[in-house]
Amino acid sequence: MKIAILSRNPRLYSTRRLVEAAQSRGHEVVVLDVLRCYMNVTANKPEVHYNGKEITGVDAVIPRIGASVTFYGTAVLRQFEMMGTFPLNESVAISRSRDKLRSLQLMSRKGVDMPVTGFAHKPGDTKDLLKMVGGTPVVIKLLEGTQGIGVVLAETPKAAESVVEAFMGLKANILIQEFIKEAGGADIRCFVVGDRVVAAMKRQGAEGEFRSNLHRGGSATLTKLTAKERATAIKAAKTMGLNVAGVDLLRSARGPVVMEVNSSPGLEGIETATSLDIASMQIEFIEKHLERTVNRSSLTKTRGKG
Ligand code: ADP
Ligand code: MG
What we know:
Elements: E1 2-6, H1 13-24, E2 28-32, E3 37-40, E4 47-50, E5 53-54, E6 60-63, H2 70-82, E7 86-87, H3 91-98, H4 100-109, E8 117-120, H5 126-132, E9 138-142, E10 151-154, H6 157-169, E11 174-178, E12 186-193, E13 196-204, E14 219-222, H7 227-240, E15 244-252, E16 255-262, H8 268-274, H9 278-305
Parallel strand pairs: 1-2, 1-6, 6-7
Antiparallel strand pairs: 3-4, 4-5, 8-11, 9-10, 9-11, 12-13, 12-15, 13-14, 15-16
Adenosine-5'-diphosphate is lined by residues 115, 139, 141, 145-148, 151, 177-180, 183, 187, 205, 210-213, 248, 250, 259-260.
């Protein structure tokens, strides 16, 4: 099999591990910087070019598309899809998951449990907005934030109003969420491949910090999931249409609630915490999928002849 990994940097841990895993299973691998791919979108035979040459014979693509290059990255991935290449995660699913509001709306429609959440751009009535999500304490988030930056805990109505107004002054979209206090500054990262949670870790925020992000000084340990937690993570990934996903859960008093679903979950933290070879599991998923498609198309051919 020939596998293309869309990644801006071949030296990143996740990229290196995927290359290693694919090669050790006997596959040919190319790492393509998505921003250097260019394409002819009008040709009746869609093409992707790289460094002056057409890329041919790719059976599967593994997209590792950073949040800052979502727009161009998903366009390149779509071009591969048009060429009949199997994407580990589909371009539409990635676009969907990159829009936090769209993701939360979709999951709510499918009955996935999540913290009570409101969103606003320029609320005329902050008090009513706070009342809508059950009052303080609330977590206020900048929609465009990552790694815990732009996530604020407001314990009193006064504090919440000030934060909402400050964010409003920046003309930012904000999300206001019920604070899940009983999570104790920890969240659970569930790594989903196909219809299984293949690994999970608990991330605990530093002392006195409610945000568990490893970038904010959090630490990761092994954790055992309940059946309900597994089912919730799988349902969240399925709702987004992702084959591979990092689903972040909070352990609330009413059971697991989904905070976010990541379409390019990193491997370093979870492989280190669990000692599992999650890179190989992703390659294996691709192998199984392609085997099934080959079998199905040869079956159709045989039937066709009969
Ligand atoms: P980011 O995308 O920047 O990582 P998150 O929404 O994941 O932002 O929030 C960062 C961290 O803050 C989470 O990992 C979690 O530990 C904590 N957190 C976020 N929302 C809540 C909430 N509603 N209740 C309790 N803790 C929360
Ligand atoms: Mg997060």
